[in-house]
Amino acid sequence: VRLVESGGGLVRPGESLRLTCAGSGIIFDTYDQNWYRQTPEKQRELVASIAPGGTVKIADSVQGRFAISGDNKKNFYLEMSNLKPEDTAVYFCNAHRITNWGAEYDYWGQGTQVTVSS
């Protein structure tokens, strides 16, 4: 299984980015699909998640600016708008599930840098 993020980069405050998490060896429809971010100063933060049934959770810090979506197969996305300097971080995608019999599967991408600066 491999997850690969793309779409990060350097943008100015107020601009937008779309991150993509592409999966190989995995179908996302039975996984929680999550986006985390991390800076050297902070712990890894859950930014957005979408559950197999479609329930979406967005962190308060990005509510109204970030959205998560996916095709439930090979890709899911993080749409980021009105970006702020404090959104600067390495963004990681994660797919996680616990089966009915207790087996846990947890996969991570390598991360993509998002830098918001004027």
Give your account of this protein's structure.
- The protein is an all-beta fold and 118 residues long.
- Helix content is 0%, strand content 53%.
- The chain is built from no helices and 11 strands.
- It has strands at residues 2-6, 9-11, 17-24, 32-38, 45-50, 56-58, 66-70, 75-80, 89-98, 104-108, 112-116.
- Strands 2, 4, 5, 6, 9, 10 and 11 form a 7-stranded mixed β-sheet that branches. It has a 4-stranded antiparallel β-sheet with strand order 1-3-8-7, with no helix packed on it.
- The radius of gyration is 14 Å and the shape is elongated.
- The model has no long low-confidence stretch (mean pLDDT 96).
In short:
With 118 residues, the chain is mostly beta strands. The chain has no helices and 11 strands. A hairpin with a 6-residue loop joins β4 (32-38) and β5 (45-50).
**Rg, please?**
14 Å
Element pattern in H and E: EEEEEEEEEEE
| Proportion of residues in β-strands | over 45%
Q: Termini, distance in Å? A: 37 Å
Uncertain segments: none
Shape: elongated
Structural class of the helix and strand makeup? Answer: mainly beta
The biggest beta sheet reads: 7 strands, mixed
Helicity level: under 10%
Our count of helices gives 0
Mean pLDDT: 96
